[in-house]
Design goal:
- It is a single chain.
- With 104 residues, the chain is of the alpha+beta class.
- The protein has a single domain, classed as Orthogonal Bundle (Arc Repressor Mutant, subunit A), CATH 1.10.10.10.
- The protein contains six helices and three strands, in the order H-H-E-H-H-E-E-H-H.
- A three-stranded antiparallel beta sheet has the order 1-3-2.
């Protein structure tokens, strides 16, 4: 089960912002760092957490590393949400019934 890793990785606002930036295009650590008020090692740590959660992939070109989002990285999260999405319509209908019964 990978959902806890995804939730932990995306719980941090800086990591979410890094992920969002990478959704636009592949970037190096230095390109990412330019948009954040954190150190380059901090960006690398955020990337490592995103990579461990399966949300980001790394491509090496010589001594440079480039990062992009993993296409299927959010699939476990969307699967989790879909399980509960099916749950709500039935519950909402029951709530409507209860509220109608409560009306004077």
């Amino acid at each position: 089960m990978i959902e806890p890793d995804i939730f932990r990785a995306l719980a941090d606002p800086t990591r979410r912002a890094v992920f969002e930036r990478l959704a636009a295009r592949e970037m190096s650590v230095s390109e990412l760092k330019a948009n954040f008020a954190v150190s380059q090692p901090a960006i690398s740590q955020h990337l490592a957490a995103l990579k461990a959660a399966g949300l980001v992939q790394e491509r090496r070109d010589g001594r440079f590393a480039y990062y992009s989002i993993t296409p299927d990285g959010l699939a476990p999260l969307t699967d989790w949400v879909d399980r509960y999405r099916r749950f709500w319509p039935e519950r909402i209908e029951k709530l409507k019934t209860v509220l109608k019964e409560m009306d004077p």
